[in-house]
Amino acid sequence: MKKRKKSFNVAVVGVGAVGVEMLRVLRSRKFPIRQLRVFARSARTIGIDGRSYTVEKISPDGFNGIDFALFAGTEGAKGAATVYASEAVKRGAVVIDNGADFRLNKDVPLVIPEVNGEDAEHHRGIIANPNCSTIQMVAAVAPINRKAKIKRIIVSTYQAASGAGRGALKQLWDETGYIHQKTDASSAAKNPFLCGKNNTAMVLPFQIAFNVLPHIGGFKEYDYTSEEWKMVHETHKIFHSKKIKISATCVRVPVLNGHAEAIYLETEKRITAQKVRQLLSSTPGVVVIDEPHNKKYPMPGMASGKDIVFVGRIRPDPFVKNGLWLWVVSDNLRKGAATNAVQIAEYLTGTKQ
Prior knowledge:
CATH topology of the largest domain: Dihydrodipicolinate Reductase, domain 2
Number of strands: 13
Shape: globular
Radius of gyration: 21 Å
Number of helices: 10
Largest sheet: 7 strands, mixed
Strand order of the largest sheet: 3-4-2-1-5-6-7
Strand content: 15-25%
């Protein structure tokens, strides 16, 4: 079900943080576009990196002639794809949706191109992007699973404000500026909770500046959040198996962009840390930075703006046989969302980088 053309008509739906990044990624990766259309709830012109884009008010007929429709999605809310994906498919488009609405639908492939790109070929018009935290974890652990069979994953995430959208980014920025203006470091340390609702727009449930929130999404079964359950169910779907035992704790941290994850693995077969380094170093889309004694390890600042998954702090558990730790960092707006969506289109068109 690949599209065999030299260039394609592409629609981007949504101009929030992810939609803007989709436009950047399409340009930076030189996706072969014949015509580009940008849709949102209202018509306007936006500027991105010195370029102007005409945004059209979304309508079903806007998808006439579109080959690929990239829906930016909104985490935690019903996205535009719930209304317009079927209309786009009806008109011949392949929908690649970054939202959560179709991810666990049995008829919708959930795809990370480097891991299970072949699943995209079996779509029925809609392909889903996994959640940002799932993408970087699975991209890092899939080669290990193929080699040594993972039995268990325990993961703690450190997720940037940008993962909650532009409003959360602004909240972090405004709160940081407000605290800086109102107090000095020593007095702020005594009372860091200085940003009430009267001081800044609250998108997140609590102040995020100089704070961490062990709460992303709504609370579900066993008091795990929806974000934590996504990492379980989506990983199982991508691997086509529920055998791996997965437990997650997802935390919002005062970082503008770039998610980090501490991932603990137990494997069936013995695999050394050095073998994991070699394995991941030869994995497309993954870069290993693992010289901790020289202070070389991945951090969100180095990942921001890049399309790859960084892995470091690869080390054995000295007390558990076949236990391993990884530290994984990636740009949640790019590989965790926009880039992965564009890579799916590249896979289907044979134009992948």
